[in-house]
Amino acid sequence: MRNLVAEVLKKPIAQVKVVPMEIGGGFGGKLPIYLDPVAALLSKKSGRPVKIVMSRTEVFEATGPTSGTVIRVKAAAKGDRLTAVRASLFYEAGAFPGSSVGAGSMTMLAPYDVENFELHAYDVVVNKPKTAAYRAPGAPAAAFAIESVIDELARHQKVDPLVFRKVNSARKGTKMVNGIAFPRIGHEECVEAALNSDHYRSPIEGPYRGRGVASGYWFNGGMQSSVVVAVNTDGTVNLVEGSTDIGGTRASLAMQLAETLGIPYEDIRPSVVDTDSIGHNDVTGGSRTTFATGMAVYEAGMAVRREMIARAAKLWGLPEDDVEYADGVVRSKKDGRQFTFKEIAAQSARTGGPITGKASLVARGVGGAYGTHIVDVEVDPETGKVTILRYTAVQDVGTAIHPSYVEGQIQGGVVQGIGWALNEEYVFDDEGRMVNSSFLDYRMPTALDVPMIDTILVEVPNPGHPYGVRGVGEVPIVPPLAAIANAIYDATGHRFTELPMSPRRIVEALNGLA
Amino acid sequence: MKRTYVQARINGEERDFLCEPRQSLLEVLREELGLTGSKEGCNNGNCGACSVLMNGRVVNACCVLGVEADGADITTIEGIARGDRLHPLQQAFLEEAALQCGICTPGFIVSAKALLDREPDADERRIRFWLSGNLCRCTGYDKIIRAVQRAAAQLQEAQA
After folding, report:
1. Is B97 on the interface with A (CB under 8 A)?
2. Is the pTM of this model over 0.90?
């Protein structure tokens, strides 16, 4: 954001200071800048601080939705083997080019090992608001298309839809659509866990009830992060970072530092500081923070460990090679003498000054991840209301650093996906103006619309991260659209190819009015 | 603009303030009284992030005028804890990880408190119905509902 503001204002980056606040949820819409440079210019003109607030209606109308899409998919199978896929993807970009069609095409076939495929992707400029990133941008629409077709294909071939996905699953070495081989991935493990779940083993019965499954993939992000770890003389630690916390990353980063240093989590105070006080950090987005800033935390923690070894070696008059660090204790390999973390910290003035570690890096080794979802629905043919009876989301999370936060990310993504599948829609008039720009008319799920969301965390550690972390925030919004469409097909025999599957559309379809 | 003198009991304390007739209670709380716990999520009564208790009833502070608060007893999120002792709902939200970005959380806690004060034995469906005026985009509600259930169980235990 700082760099974008500097670019618009034609100012050196160092002249722009961004002080991050508690900004609410992310989901992608806050990655671009909107009023920030305007406020800066007005402030310069008036010589006074300027605050500009966007109303909720302005946020709806002016901050960019995800792309509206049209996707055509044709797929072929021989027995239980997926043999070929041909697809065309058309994504709205809004008034300027730049939709998420690239990501849609790249993620679409990621769950599968399919030898023959042909993808055509079109970025379509239309007279509507410029689209913006929206949780796994591009992927849910592509998954809605392919996973609906896979469902039909599996039914046609009389193969259980999860078994079909397992048989045809991508795995380590499978080529992605860009020709590069996948590193270790966990789709097969997710499908396996879904097959063995209590949910999938329980029968679903009753009229207008049905079950659907779907898989989905998201790349996850790497990019640049900087952190500083400062050890205080009482052995407490300040973890200074620049990744805005939108959902618990202060905790997930402090936990990784506690692990690296072998000290209690409670001794670490994480804080997100302004842009003058830390090296550059790329956006909090792309499910990258726990992974990439976490990698920087690990590197900075290792720098502190090396410094602690050097200090102890100095105090003992030993070469550094004879000193080791483990579980928050520095120990002489020669005679077992040791200092605790706190003891070394207390002696910093005598051993060379304050102990700090820092790391600035481009995080390589990003681990893409998969989810496989199971949903049971009941459709009311008179009102068109779809009730979600039961939902289980299986996801490869790499390593769950803070398991209940990981579950929360998955549950939140699922419910956002349920909203997309059943109700959420930007309605435009003939002139391209949005006509439902309030929370009354833009119908996102309430607590009453959804059940508890069960999660199954599959841990296939990412070999590219010291603790095996994969991003977890975006994957869970990819499968729900198709999983729910497949469940509605199972319940009603009607295949919905248009979203949202709102009460009106359902009533019309079931009564032959569409 | 002529400002009106208003007296109200806010979080157990007698407060007075001057307020323009057009100002909402939410604006007064946040900008005049420095009580920024109540959030503006929509400013038209649809999201519940500004839920406060007014004479024991949940209201959206964005839809109440500041002048209407004259003589009222108002409880905001800042008045839920007893000093350093968190309310069982606040403790349960922490323990159940029932928040992510945190913007909707004050509204949920205030609203849930009004329910449990009245119906400590509310079941899952009743809790979901009661909280359907509070929107959350991050959590999918699962952990929020569990936190309210946990707090309800604790409050019932304390009463037994």
Report:
1. yes
2. yes
